[in-house]
Amino acid sequence: MTCQKWTSQTPNSHTKLQDHPYKGLGDHNFCRNPDREDWVWCYVPDPSERYEYCDIGSAQPTCGLINHGIECFTDYLLAADYRGYVNETVNGRTCQKWTSQKPFKHKMLQNHPTKGLGDHNFCRNPDREDWAWCYTTDPSVRYEYCNIGRAQPTCG
Fold first, then answer.
1. Comparing C-alpha atoms, which of 91, 103, 110 is closest to residue 135?
2. Would you tell me how many other CB atoms lie within 10 Å of the CB of residue 77?
3. What's the chain look like in SS3?
4. Is the CB of residue 48 less than 8 Å from the CB of residue 73?
5. Do 144 and 134 touch, CB atoms closer than 8 A?
6. 13-50 pLDDT, tens per residue?
7. How far is CA 112 from the centre of its chain?
8. Which residues are CB-contacts of 115 (< 8 A; sequence separation ≥ 6)?
9. Is the pTM of this model over 0.90?
């Protein structure tokens, strides 16, 4: 299946970019879940089929790596308990280390000392944003959400 670019309005027009500006949508056709559907999806370039769910891999029976190097977490609304190793944003930007103040200054370590932050650049959700995220190393983009996969009922 080929996805329609999120910036395209043909053949399927939509307002997802305006409605969900921080959900990793942009001038690409990658699968996303900006509106908390059951799974990641995309508009398809077929006017008779508005959208389709995407096949991005499936969970393993126990907590640990699943397809694409994404790991187990159970908080399906916010991913606040995610403690995996994804260190890249949905748009492919490298995450800034939580102990670093460059290029972006922040007080996350001081304000959220027990939320899985440390001397690493893995995606986390210490402040209960919409999803796991990180500061980026791109000076023009302060932070972005991360593609950490899908929550599981239990881990371990």
1. 103
2. 10
3. CCCCCCCCCCCCCCCHHHHCCCCCCCCCCCCECCCCCCCCEEECCCCCCCEEECCCCCCCCCCCCEHHHECCCCCCCCCCCCCCCCCEECCCCEECCCCCCCCCCCCHHHHCCCCCCCCCCCCECCCCCCCCEEEECCCCCCEEEECCCCCCCCCC
4. no
5. yes
6. 999 988 887 777 888 888 888 887 778 889 998 888 89
7. 20
8. 80, 124, 125, 126, 127
9. no
CA dihedral angle for residue 129, residue 25, residue 36, residue 55, rounded to 10 degrees: -120
First to last CA, the chain: 33
Six token digits for residue 96 = 């800034």
